[in-house]
Specification:
This protein is mainly alpha-helical. Helices cover about 70% and strands about 0% of the residues. It contains 15 helices and two strands. The protein has a two-stranded antiparallel sheet with strand order 1-2. A hairpin with a 2-residue loop joins strand 1 and strand 2. The structure holds geranylgeranyl diphosphate (GRG).
Length: about 300
């Protein structure tokens, strides 16, 4: 199957499953479910669930076993975006081409929608473990990766450093810490969790870990470049926000040209880590190239 077709079809599978898992908008109190569904179904790329399902597949696992966890990680990612957009954080009005959650539902509901999504993701993972007790150890290990990457050892710490770094000159180590935690940790957890559920061996886990670490960094460098050179109509949000908020980014610390070189280097490091998988790695290679060239 063509790469773009597989990407689209996988995203559709994830959307259908998310729709099944999430409470309906008619549930009481309606507003919180409307707010959750507004952000979940607003056209995200579904990168993290796609990575999880592909990692499971590449090690010979069954993607049906990973779909609940894939949806859970998208719930965590969406919670992080809702909270990141709040006035107390990045104060953004647009996300994925639509008004941000708090602009539509108000700050309190947006905070609660994020909290609700985070909790719901845990419930989905725990239900999967309860329903699949024969595979429970792999599911528990995968869940630990995901929860740890989302919390203070991962995304939360990265976000703290991001906020504390606003308006300051930071060094390269701090920049790397920030992005490896804020963006990279959840991307790595997606890949590792998928591989664990798929039954990966140590050699496969180590190769996929290196792939994901590099891909996460490349993804963030590209995000920083898009904030300078991107097209607002394709991005679905305003560009120049990083400069306006005096954010610490790769172009700010290294300059735009060097950042572009680093993007190429980290992407080829990611691709080179996949050598042990032979031709089964084609989709991940194409996905890496797609992310480097993405416009949104
Ligand atoms: C609130 C604890 C907490 C953390 C927020 C994710 C995050 C941390 C902040 C988002 C800020 C940001 C734009 C980071 C750059 C990388 C990133 C996560 C981009 C958005 O992810 P995509 O491109 O989004 O996968 P879609 O919309 O496609 O899902």
């Amino acid at each position: 199957m063509e790469f773009e077709q597989k990407l689209k079809e996988t995203a559709e599978v994830i959307n259908t499953h998310l729709d099944k898992l999430l409470p309906s908008e008619d549930s009481y109190p309606q507003n919180i479910y409307k707010s959750i569904r507004y952000s979940i179904f607003s056209g995200g790329k579904r990168l993290r669930p796609i990575l999880m399902m592909t990692a499971c597949e590449i090690v010979g696992g069954d993607i049906n076993k990973v779909i609940n966890f894939a949806c859970a990680i998208e719930m965590i990612h969406t919670y992080s975006l809702i909270h990141d957009d709040l006035p107390a954080m990045d104060n953004d009005d647009y996300r994925r081409g639509r008004l941000t959650n708090h602009k539509v539902f108000g700050d309190a509901t947006a905070i609660l929608a994020g909290d609700g999504l985070l909790n719901y993701s845990v419930e989905v993972m725990l239900n999967t473990i309860i329903d699949n007790q024969d595979d429970s150890i792999n599911y528990i290990k995968a869940m630990k990766e995901i929860i740890s990457a989302s919390g203070v050892y991962g995304m939360v710490s990265g976000q703290v450093v991001d906020i504390e770094s606003e308006g300051k000159e930071i060094n390269q180590e701090t920049l790397e810490f920030m992005h490896r935690h804020k963006t990279g940790a959840l991307i790595t957890a997606s890949v590792i969790a998928g591989a664990i559920i798929g039954g990966a061996n140590q050699q496969q886990l180590s190769a996929l870990g290196k792939f994901a670490d590099n891909l996460g960094l490349a993804f963030q460098i590209k995000d920083d470049i898009l904030d300078i050179e991107g097209d607002e109509s394709k991005l679905g949000k305003k560009v120049g926000r990083d400069q306006k908020n005096d954010k610490s980014t790769f172009p700010k610390v290294y300059g735009l040209e060097k950042s572009k070189e680093m993007l190429k280097e980290t992407t080829s490091n990611a691709i080179n880590s996949l050598e042990i998988f032979k031709e089964e790695n084609n989709f991940l290679i194409e996905l890496s190239n797609y992310l480097v060239n993405r416009e949104s």
